[in-house]
Amino acid sequence: MKNKINITAIEIDRIIEMAWEDRTPFDAIETQFGINESQTIRLMRLNMKPKSFRMWRERVQNRATKHTKKRNFELGTHKCTLQKSISMNKISKRNAR
Q: What is the pLDDT of residues 29-42, one digit of tens each?
């Protein structure tokens, strides 16, 4: 990265985790850690195995959910229609039998 940014190993792990998540935009990484999309890509390249990086890069390239301006849905989290029944522990009890 051109401007040396002090990032701890724990922060690098979190950035990689956020970058892998489909619904976490690069803007969220920039807001939280101060590195833009190209710096995130470089960080991923330097900290991942080559095959893993290529697989990740193929997944996120042109993915609308990784770019806030390309999203066609409101910001927020997705809520599963089964959320209530999952949180009431009905599904896990049903599968335990």
A: 999 999 999 999 99
Q: What domain count does the chain have?
A: 1
Range of the domain at 92: 9-96
65, 34 contact by CB (below 8 A): no
User: Within a 10 A sphere around the Cβ of 69, how many other Cβ atoms?
Assistant: 7
From 22, 27, 21, 15, select the one nearest 67 (Cα to Cα). Answer: 27
Please say whether the beta carbons of 68 and 24 come within 8 A: no
pTM passes above 0.85: no
Rounded to an integer, what is the distance from CA 35 to the centroid of its chain? 14
Judge whether 4 lies within some domain: no
